[in-house]
Amino acid sequence: MFNHTVTIYNKYVDTATRSYAYKKTVLKGVHWESGEGVKLGSKSVTTSDDTFLIIPFSIKVFDNYVKPNLFTNEGDLWTLQTEDIVVKGELDLNIKSIADLKGYEVGTVKKIHTIDYAFGCLNNWTLELS
Questions:
Q1: Domain range for residue 58?
Q2: How many domains are contained in the chain?
Q3: For the residues of the chain, what is the DSSP string, one character each?
C-alpha cells in the first residue's frame, strides 16, 4: 500500500555492558511524511519540523512485533516505544547512538498512536517523530 522503507532502531539496555544499545529492524511498505513549518503564537514565532510515520498492521514483519514490556534483543522481535530511532531508508548499519546516523533523514519516536478499527480497513501505528 505504501512505498517507503524505514529502519527502526529499538533502544534497550545491554545487560552485559549496562549501557544503552540498539537493535535494527527494516520495515517496508510504510508511509514517511515530513514537513517544515512555522507556528505563530500570540507573542512568539517558532519553527515546527514535523515528521510522521504510518506503519500498517499488514506489513510483512507484523507477526514479529511485541509490546515493549515483552521486547528482547534476541531473534527477529521488534517493538515501538518512545526514544526509538527511525531512519528513512534501509540501512545495514549497527549503531551505538543517534550520532552514528549523521547525514541520514532521522527521527526519534516521541508519540505512538494505535489506530485499530474494528473493520480492519487501515489499522496502523502512527508515530510522531522529533
A1: 4-129
A2: 1
A3: ---EEEEEEEEEEETTTTEEEEEEEEEEEEEEEEEEEEEE-SS-EEEEEEEEEEEETTSGGGGGB--GGG--SSTT-B---TT-EEEES------SSGGGGTTS-EEEEEEEEEE--TT-SS-EEEEEE-
pLDDT in tens, 54-94: 999 999 998 999 999 999 998 999 999 999 999 999 999 99
Nearest to 30, CA basis, from 10, 7, 55? 55
pTM over 0.85: yes
Neighbouring CB atoms inside 10 A of 54's CB total 18
Provide the pLDDT confidence category of residue 44 given band limits of 50, 70 and 90. Answer: low
